[in-house]
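Lecture notes, structural biology module. Today: joint structure prediction for complexes of two components.
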Amino acid sequence: MSHYDPLKIEEKWQKRWEEEQPFAAKDNDNRPKMFLAEMFPYPSGAGLHVGHVRNFSIVDCLARFYAQNEVNVLRPFGYDTFGLPAENYAIKTGIAPQEVTKTNIDNFRKQAWRLGYAIDWSREINTSDPEYYKWTQWCFLQLFKKGLAYQAESYQWWCPVDKTVLANEQVENGCCWRCGHEVEKKKMKQWFFKITAYADELLEEIDSLDWPEKIKTMQKNWIGRSEGAEIVFEIDGHKEKLTVFTTRPDTLFGATFMVLAPESEIIKKIVSKDAKEAVEAYCKAAIKKSEIERQENKEKTGVFTGAYAINPANGAKIPIWVADYVLSGYGTGAIMAVPAHDDRDHEFAEKFDLPIIKVIEKPLGSTDDSECYHGEGEIVNSEQFNGQDSADVREAMVAWLEERGIGHKKVTYRMRDWLISRQRYWGCPIPIAYDKNGKAHAIPEDQLPVMLPKIDDYKPDESGRSALAKSEEFMKVTIDGEEMTRETDTLDGYACSSWYLWRYTDPHNKKAAWDKKKVNYWAPTDIYCGGDHAVAHLLYVRFWCKFFADEGYLDFREPIKKLLYNGYINAPDGKKMSKSKGNVIDPLDVINQGYGADTLRTYELFIGPYNMDAAWSTEAIGGVYRFLNRCWTLCFDKKHATKDVNIVIRNKTIKKVTDDIRRANFNTAVAALMEYVNELYKTGACDEDLAILAKLLKPFAPHLASEMLESLKSDDVWPQYEAKYLKADTVEVVVQVNGKLRARLAVPVEDVEDNAKLEELAKADEKVKTFTDGKQIIKTIVVAKSHLVNIVVK
RNA sequence: GGGCGAGUGGCGGAAUUGGUAUACGCGGCAGACUUAAAAUCUGCUUCCUUUACCGGAUUAUGGGUUCGAGUCCCAUCUCGCCCACCA
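The predicted structure, tokenised, for the full assembly:
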């Protein structure tokens, strides 16, 4: 007598899949296509994680399901390999990131094989492969040529000792996290992608996407479109003018002071002699303050510049202040303060004793009892606008300003342009060189890729540039006979992942990033699955898609039709798995201890709704193993029945599993298969029962299902249910009295549609009678579709 | 502070359009097999009352709409996530 031996079965089928390559997608095919992908992983040294397994298993279940439904499926795989961990490891050990990455990829690939994924391995990609990043550089150049990749000065955290830029999180109490020296905010020239050029389209098309609402809302908030006006203020005794952005031009008469961000250039020009020292000290301190500090202490601070602006509405002289609650990166970095109707301005005015003028009357009966009213209402204290509604004045005021040439409508976005230069070695080199005058030139396309040179020391040095600057050979380049110096910054890793979905459609193309015909056949990606990057990556791909559509390289403007956002798998204690806590579950351990890949995959899909976080349970996985073991036993260790008695439940199961997979309700699909197997254990399974079971099981447990199908001599074509077999001979009809369940009637299927008959049967039932006798029946509701009768009595 | 989402047995969860609440699994209990244990198989398992039947209660709390509410509406409480001085 043999037994279910998952490791043996899995080895057999994995070997066969390697030989036969049954998952290769066909570029020319008349069948409907389906392009599915997970967010490609960063191949860390730790190897595959149970979170990867959940993510990949969702995609695999769908890929196999559609393949069994005779759809031409593209299910590729790749690695997002540039990034800090490999570089830090290189700095520590001297081992080249290229080598570490290769080792890690080999390990990841081997582990993914052990899970039996239906991947088209001929399309594997790796973002740090020169064959790949050549085309990342090509993408950059397209953006550069259109002015959408540009350089600009912006404030960065800078450590004068380490001579390097620091991330906000690397600044602790105003000091460098490494050396402890005070950091400065330094203006540095950096590369940006002009994502804001697509802000409106990125916002408008969100609603049309089949994406989780949560992600859509996050993207909308991130883009943060605000409609309002820009208004120009004269400065008393100066030529300079001050432009502010406001969403409430209707409150202009209530503007009693102005506030500038500490970074504003104009401060130097307008500050009075008396105020100069205090203003300079304030600005220096404010600019030094970290974001973290700003969050901790939100009490308003600021200083008066000694200068006055003229309120264009009423000619009033109003003081100009500097305060760090005004952000330099948003709007114009300057505001008109309306303390009567804005909380922040109100708090500031109270603290510094500035005038507060009410210009909107709270409507009678308003329940808003805050000191400072933000709603709509009748305009007051505003001369010719008095008596009108604030919403109308918002328009009228802008028209009035426009007539005088001192204001206009304006839309502002919270989203900033995407800073993409990094002073790091292990990234895609930016294909730019500088001439003697410092002007940036594109590296000609025939000189791509700009290869990342092999170097010995990966540590950033005194120059403040990436380690690339140390390679003299790298630095020198000749363009059109002119000697130039290369850019030493590399691209943010998100640039590499902004186009990889299209590379999958044509991964070995040496002449182009992708072939137009192939990309337009396969893409947009039909189903994309991941559990991270709600805003950044998923916004950047959308941005590049729109750009390349505008350039004629793509025939679609949205890259991802349906997004499945899967939840995390946490440790059994509900906490995040982490090495330091020692609560990490290694998927390979789970397989090797005897459960096998089929159990692991099925368990991770059964653990709960795919989009919710779940805690690993070492007991519950045993239940899934038992289920697969029962499947195996039915097929290989029990006598098959000769009579077919399970037609109804079989057809119901086909319908349920099919519908559930289409809805991504993987957990209930598995539950339906368990019910089916429980029933087969009671009644006995015939060959037809088993073949259907194996076919439905294959997307979850492909090795076991293949083994079953082989022994049953069956193909794996997805079964169709027959509607006529979904109903048994008799149907259970429930009878309620006043909404309470009182009886269950077995009604012949032909009588179920007959309302009068159902009512008659219900009223004649003995048990029902005990609740209706002696009472007046007011009405009877018969819902044939729900198999339900409700008798209302008094 | 703002936005979004969620609260169902001992636990993970199911209930697809307002129509039989608690599917499926874990855990627990009992039984079969076994010298014994594991494995496997069978049955029971929301709570209260009851040997059992019957009955009653129950989807965070309180109210509402409806013949009928886990599902819709209002209020309250709790938890989670995201954003956070965005003018």
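Point to remember: The CA atoms of residues 433 and 486 of chain A lie 4 Å apart.
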